[in-house]
Amino acid sequence: MLNRRSIARLLILLSTIWICGPVHALPHRVPDQVLTGTLTGADHETYREVAFEVPAGTKRLTVDFAYTGREDKTTIDLGLRDPDRFRGWSGGNKSQFTVSASDSTPSYLSGPLPAGTWSLVLGVPNIRQAATAAYTAKIWLDRADVPFGGFSDGPIKTGARWYRGDLHVHTGHSDGSCLSREQKKIPCPVFRSLQTAVEAKLDFVAITDHNATSQFQALRELQPYFDDLLLIPGREVTTFKGHANLFGVVDPVEFQIGTSHAPTLSDTLSKAHGLGGLVAINHPSLPSGEICMGCGWTAQTPWADIDAIEVINGGTMRSAGGQAEVLSGIGFWQKQLDAGYPITAIGGSDNHDPDRSVDEAGAIGQPVTAVFAQGLDQANILAAIRTGQVLIDLDPARQRTLDFRAERGGQVVPMGQNLSLSKNGSVRFSANLTNGEGTRLEVIDSTGTVTVLTPLTKPIEERWFTLKMDHQQRRWIRLNLRAADGRLLMISNPIYINFKSPRFQP
Ligand SMILES: [Zn+2]
Ligand SMILES: [Zn+2]
């Protein structure tokens, strides 16, 4: 039998060992404030409120708390008050937490951060009479211009390789639905989509609810559990003249284009980019009007401010009976390439129901967007999309990779990059494919020609081709992979020739 004293000891022990590992990525910079102090036996079973100042314009507060004396069973619990209200209590279960308007570590309430005097509340369930304990609270205060660093505590995986994901998924935070345990159609909770993404062997997923930002709280809570899947904050900026996904931003960004909130699309795009976001136009070739209100892209567009175009949309494919090229955004995208804008092509399932059968168009991971990134974290995945080393995989079960390069005079450029020529001559291109047996590559040249290369027969195989180039001609070259029956399996991004774009400045 446990007596009261041993129960108390056990509780103190549990309180001590329940401190989890890091649950939040600490900012990579010196803390803005460091609060230190000492507790003694006189503080046993008392609360100490340690005041600190939060300046106006602060949008996120992150705390990392440590103390000495655990070997003497000293226990310090943690909570937070803002000038107006109690913000939460994590007791002894977390040594780090973040609080912001959009998302907060579980135990703490999200909401605006009022300027003024805040307190870190230290509860002392135990400190021995003769003991002393030194505490240190490091505090970071993010101001409005600090980009969001991600929900994950550091990279999910490290190393340069292909990472595979779905960039367009809806949940119950907009019009995503699924069946409840009693088989009723309900707004689908976020974790169901994430679970399906894991089953589809994805490395990353962006949750892109229509104009909503309430999903970020769920992503904050779920990322530590889904520690093999990078959760990217997204939203589908849904306007009367088209839809565009915004990735990597948790701050409010206006979608009511043409109103005082956002007079022009440029206003919304510059806000998004100022916050480190990436913008992709979705399903641009869908019809607009009463068939599908606001679905096609008809907005006046500053093309230099568009980072990506969703050329394959799973939902569109599903409506077209599984045919990828009917109503695809390929033609729309190539028109912008022809106009000199090196915009990255991506894909997205546009899934609205995680129960959809895994091999069906529009299921989570149908299609996959594969990116060659330096690591699996938000900054690297978004950087890789900007860089353009990106494939759209319409047959993701085979997990194919395609390495596409151009070479001239010892200079090698990968897919997504530009080769500027100082004189006329030949450029040699190479395509290295894994799991490509029984398929064939098509070379799409902006001059209008399509060349089919010799069919692939082995699990790892390379094809070469050489094209004559005029040093004064802007041109792009890309690849399609097709099955023997002509079905489109994969789309590469281009290699650019003689493009002038800020993206290619050294
Ligand atoms: Zn849409
Ligand atoms: Zn959508």
Features of the shown structure:
TIM Barrel, Jelly Rolls, four-stranded antiparallel beta sheet, elongated, binds zinc ion, 13% helix, 3 domains, mainly beta
What is the number of strand segments?
Answer: 29
Radius of gyration: 26 Å
Report how far the terminal alpha carbons are from each other. 72 Å
Our count of helices gives 7
Largest sheet: 15 strands, mixed
Question: How does this model look, in words?
Answer:
The chain has 506 residues and is mainly β. It folds into three domains: 4-143, Jelly Rolls (Sandwich), CATH 2.60.120.380; 151-394, Alpha-Beta Barrel (TIM Barrel), CATH 3.20.20.140; 400-506, Sandwich (Immunoglobulin-like), CATH 2.60.40. The chain has seven helices and 29 strands. The chain has helices at residues 4-17, 190-199, 215-222, 265-274, 314-319, 330-338, 378-387; strands at 33-40, 47-54, 58-67, 75-81, 86-91, 96-100, 116-126, 132-143, 157-169, 177-179, 185-187, 204-210, 230-239, 242-247, 278-281, 308-313, 344-348, 368-376, 390-393, 402-408, 411-414, 418-419, 425-434, 439-445, 450-452, 460-469, 475-483, 488-492, 495-497. The protein has a 15-stranded mixed sheet that branches. A hairpin with a 2-residue loop joins strand 20 (402-408) and strand 21 (411-414). Residues 168, 170, 236, 350 line the site of one zinc ion.
